[in-house]
Amino acid sequence: MKTNAARILDGLKIKYELREYVVDEGDLSAENVADKVGFPAEQVFKTLVARGDKTGVLMACVPGSAELDLKALAVASGNKKVEMVSLKEVQPLTGYIRGGVSPLGAKKRYPVFLDESASHWPFISISAGMRGHQILVASGELARAVEAKICKVARFLVVEEL
């Protein structure tokens, strides 16, 4: 099934692969999605919706194994402060539901900040705009499609070994 995100890539003549998986409604985490599509969580990027105090709504794509660094996003986006939007605001702002937010094809075109770690992979996996559907696409092509700023906005959690 083609999603709006896939149609946008088609229109830009960007190569991608659509990957479907069975959704676990009880666990919509990027780590779970990564497991289902067979890629490491570092290669499966989640799209988070935030709001800057100066620029308004923006999106950040970070690896499933990382957290969004709000301070780094504020600096990258020219804001003093950035906060996550509430879950109830996500759908009205983007047209997408939790677990299906894509940087492509939202209701309105928001600035997108793609974590620089995306360039370490030949392609990354992002939501196709619907739960159970992922798009595999080269990070540079995604950045071109959404006019993303590539910068360090992810904070990887360090697990200390005992």
Provide an overview of this structure.
By secondary structure, the chain is of the alpha+beta class. The protein has one domain: YbaK protein (Alpha-Beta Complex). Helices cover 25% and strands 28% of the residues. It has five helices and ten strands; from the N terminus they run αβαβββαβαβββαββ. The strands form three sheets. It has a five-stranded mixed sheet. A hairpin with a 3-residue loop joins strand 2 (45-52) and strand 3 (56-63). The N and C termini lie far apart (46 Å). The model has no long low-confidence stretch (mean pLDDT 94).
What is the compact description of this entry?
With 162 residues, this protein is α+β, with helices and mostly antiparallel strands.
Strand order of the largest sheet: 5-2-3-6-9
- Which second-level CATH architecture applies? Alpha-Beta Complex
User: How many strand elements?
Assistant: 10
Structural class: alpha+beta
The CATH first-level class comes to Alpha Beta
Termini separation comes to 46 Å
- CATH topological fold name: YbaK protein
Percent helix: 10-25%
Order of helices and strands: HEHEEEHEHEEEHEE
Rounded to an integer, what's the Rg over CA atoms?
A: 15 Å
Family: Belongs to the prolyl-tRNA editing family. YbaK/EbsC subfamily.
Keywords: Lyase, Protein biosynthesis
Protein name: Cys-tRNA(Pro)/Cys-tRNA(Cys) deacylase
Pfam family, one: tRNA_edit
